[in-house]
């Protein structure tokens, strides 16, 4: 049932000022994690960083309202980078948008057919092997930017990619590598300090501080503002992230798009769309099971799948341009659950945090060092 979680939260239980405070705390906490992560995964998927922020704003709200788990937070998901990047390279941004929309339709059909509980019968070994392979692939993809390697072309196949990275090691950029090591170190060791603030914001600030030192010493570090540019409808250009809402346009009518909507193109995108839907279903339902154990609640698997599908469909209709897939993310969900919020309202607060980034404050998003964000 759509909006079941919202109905339970607002009508069946009393909403008080203290719960509102917990919602705000939980939303801001997850927003701190989501903003740099959304930009990083958009870059990793082969699109500009603003598309990650659009996704966080639109889909986070819709999925929270229509999903079947009260505590799940739908955020940027690194696992989909492996699937989305080849699609964007082969079919362009328009093909990426259409494939993701198709995956949303698949998820809605899964929920209507009551396939939600069937996910529980997938062997744990299959899930662990699948996710481990994705993690290794993503880690390998980021070595180039992490170390600042100079590579004119990155091979498509994994073993060839590893060989090309090894051959490019002599071109390592010490400044980029220093920022990457400091940022990664903060993410790893910050939780050991016992501070409840998530380590993503301190890591981002530490990386920016190292970047300032490197620039003072005469080095050069690429930033989001120096690597990404945009052109508005009136012809004006800018660096970094635009401060305007995206235009509403059909994917096959995107500027400079050579994608043609046809049966052949849909058939070519079908395997990738089905893979996205299956991966999204598995990840979202596994996340909901973990949250049930943390909060003592019981999620509704089929409603969760329908909510995921609706979130993707509405995102495609409202955000106007291609982005990455979204599904519940355990790290963000746990960060929201710790303050004991009153979902799904707390998710609306965190979804508002990324949305503010394309308003005047998105000017500051130009300055973080972009390779380390990934």
UniProtKB/TrEMBL annotation:
GO MF annotation terms: secondary active sulfate transmembrane transporter activity
Cited Pfam families: Sulfate_transp
Name of this protein: Sulfate transporter
Keyword vocabulary terms for this entry: Membrane, Transmembrane, Transmembrane helix
TM region(s), chain numbering: 24-44, 91-112, 124-143, 163-189, 201-222, 268-291
SLC26A/SulP transporter domain ranges (all copies): 20-310
Listed InterPro entries: S04_transporter_CS, SLC26A/SulP_dom, SLC26A/SulP_fam
Locations listed in the record: Membrane
GO cellular component: membrane
Domain of life where this protein originates: Bacteria
Primary location group: membrane
Membrane topology (UniProt): Multi-pass membrane protein
